[in-house]
Amino acid sequence: MAVQNLYDLSPALRLMIMGLVVALGPLAWVWLHHKHAPVTRRLRVLTLVTLFLTFDLVIFGAFTRLTDSGLGCPDWPGCYGSASPVGAQMHIEAAQSAMPTGPVTHTKAWIEMIHRYLATGVGVLILTLAVVSWLERKRAHISPVWPAVTLLWVCLQGAFGALTVTMKLFPAIVTLHLLGGLVLLALLRAQSVRYAQAQEASGVVEMSTGTRFFVIAAFALLWLQVALGGWVSTNYAVLACTDFPSCQNSLWPAMDFSQGFTLWRELGAGHDGANISFQALTAIHYAHRLAAYVVFAALLLLAARLYRVPALRPDACWLAGLTLLQAATGLSNVVLGWPLVAAVAHTGGAAALVVVLTGIVFSSRSNPSPVHASKWKASRLSA
Prior knowledge:
Layout: E1 7-8, H1 12-34, H2 39-66, E2 76-77, H3 89-98, H4 106-135, H5 145-166, H6 171-198, E3 205-208, H7 209-234, H8 257-260, H9 278-306, H10 313-335, H11 340-362, E4 364-367, H12 370-382
Parallel strand pairs: 1-2, 3-4
Helix pairs in contact: 1-2, 1-4, 2-4, 2-6, 2-11, 4-5, 5-6, 6-7, 6-11, 7-9, 7-11, 9-10, 10-11
């Protein structure tokens, strides 16, 4: 059997057409329901629709990874040089016959390709946002910077998607691909906030400098925890600890942080190229668990503090609810043996937290305390 090239661009045009077909539905809906609305409103609605589909893409990406379908089609961007598994049926059957439980099966191929179709459709929508915002920048008084940055990022994310396949699920690449998807969500959420502010649908919420600092610190902690969680998932280290709150009947089990956090290595390999040790997997898992305690407390405290700001009470409720959901799904992954539903929900909860906190960050700003403001006004009057 001939060796399949890792990159085969022959089906690229057909995949682009497929992405256009996926994007036509949302584009038609936005146009029909908002064709008489101002440009900023149409762009905001399209951004929110794209945000929703990108969230679905992140969830389906987690499903693809957790069902071991990431190599369901061993080449990129198509499947054995075809635009769908239908055209690659003979190759898939041969691979499945040679290794029935291997990475290539008909089901895994379809999961992988549906993920690519959805990703291409999201790319078309982001390209549309960038083009329209550039064309309407003067008439609608909007900046095309955010859509342009988002377009550049989705291109980079596509490159990481290709490397995920061609580098055979290299943990660092897969983790960066997951983080890239969440950054894309954050960019789209920030973009939607800016459009809402441009059409005066919502203003900027003012808060104390201390609360604002707390928001930024919690946002940074969330990204750190997401990165640690991605590292756990891509190294399949979830089941290194199957009890709670202890791990392997100890509050400090044997761990090898040096090997576990050697970032540039192949899947299942240690820093010396040999098989990764169980102690290294334990270190990966336990680092994520210890950080989770800190992030859990920080997010709940932040939610309580934001609840005092009337304009942010809905966000505070979402933040608290999603934090509790993350704790529940994370615990379920450990004690129930990493069930697929809980694992996918855990990724979805992280993505939702990123969306909510990004909205809070970009819709708020710090406001000097009344004492400082009074002193500033007094100094101006005396001058």
